[in-house]
Queue: 2 jobs
Job 1
Amino acid sequence: MISSHAFNMTSTEMWVERHRPRSVSEMKGQATIVERLKAYAGQRDFPHLLFAGPPGTGKTTAALALARDVFQDYGIYSRNLLEMNASDERGLQSVRTKVKEFARMAPDQNVPFKLIFLDEADALTPDAQGALRRIMEQYAGTCRFILSCNYSSKIIEPIQSRCAVFRFRPLAEDQILEMVQEVAESEGLVLENHGAAAVVHVAMGDLRRAITALQVAASLSNTITRDLVYETTATAPPEELHAFLRSCQEDGFQPSRMKMYAIIDRFGLAGTDIVNQLHRSLADVQFMTEREKLAVTEAMAEADFRLVEGGGESLQLDALTARISTILKIN
């Protein structure tokens, strides 16, 4: 039964939006980037910008916070900002119509320029990026662009050369922990220390993933425990994965195989999930040599490739368990 105490059953995006910084100065993490953006906000002017980095590291937040700082008044902000998700409108026609029409209109009085924010710009087709390059060049005097992407290599060089590039990094664990504790307090949740550590582990440097994990757990209980976080995020605790590897080393194939499927059933994992989580946990294993870790990593890579290519899940996981058991017993 789902309780109704926490967050009024709002969507994840609404929860994230509720805790999004409204100004560049409120942002946490990405210290070097924040300092540069503060300088732009103080000048109320900036060149075209390209934000690149993994999901959940603050790219969209930085763009919207900078826009609010530059335009200040909310009415001016909303009238002079066009926010688009390029993965939804990735074709040439969207750039030629929606983007160009907005860029060619003069900004409000006392506003130096209009701003177009293209999220997930690496989804734009090459033709659309070529048209965008021309618009950026033609309307540079009255319009600025902020492009956000996960992979800057997918943005054509003529656009990259017109932008100041900001490379966002995954957030540090202490920064995610601080934000998670702040969000939990503001939402009236009881966040246990081990529960907070579990959220940080699940997040892997992605703050949006951390907030999502916290919200999903909060839909079931006002007290966020370690077990609750792992069970609601389809993530196996490190000690469970270490126990599987220990079983491969000491017990052999059949007991290890049964242990793997017990983990999969309990935490609702897909084949690729458990391979990736095993790979992540391998770094902390103390009872394996470096040579064994190298051989096991190679086995995991092959299993992951075959699963992605459509290989039978049970057969591939059995084969992986057999190879790990063989590696650890031989060495």
Job 2
Amino acid sequence: MKVYALVGKSGTGKSFQATYLCGQMNIEYIIDDGLLIGRAAVLAGISAKRQKTKIGAVKTALFTDDTHMREVRDKLSEISPARILVIGTSRDMVFKICRRLGLEEPEIIINIEDITTEEERNAAHRQRYEQGKHVIPVPTFELKKEFSGYFMNPLKWFMGRGARNSSRGERTVVRPTYSYLGNYNISDRVITDIINHICIKSGFVFKVNKMSVYKTKAGIKVKVFLIMYDGRNIIEAAEKIQREIVKEIEMMTAFNVENTDIEIRGLKCS
């Protein structure tokens, strides 16, 4: 296995450049902030960007937890990649990650300054420290469960359509819990209000009889009991409401909706 490293200070655009660099050097796997990423998917690990403090994030990125470390080591042993890129803020950090994961020291160490301009690094720095945004080199749909409840956007909203290398692989922007911009909480009442509004606005629902919202590690599960107006295509109307609930909750709250059940408890003659 050939090990490569990409090194640069925090907020200089390493994760943004990683997929482009891997494409140029025919590298299929990346170690970045506690995650093992391969072929546009998270294969193992825990993202440092999910930690509540910067100290916790650093520990996760260094694989200090034995369970976390073993999970990634076992996956690496299973897939046995020919080439892998390890991303770190310094050479020392990269060496520590390699030791924890049982990898050889990197054959080639690339500095972020060697593959980016000062203008690009400054732009990345502003996005990190002014807006609290971090890049993960994985498509957004791959992170919905991992980052349920975190606001995420495809990278086109982060760098703009005209940015250099923007078409080289897919990436996602998240705002971590430990961002200095602060955390946020969304109450169950907000979610039920959204559901109620969608149901009544549809014109198919006479009354929302009852609803339940269950939070899970991967997102939320929703169950809605409705009394609907008679004389319409009830199944088609319920399916439309179901789709709207998922769409609006995910857009307005950033929660991943695992499941949405609609139960029709009765019909009202219009």
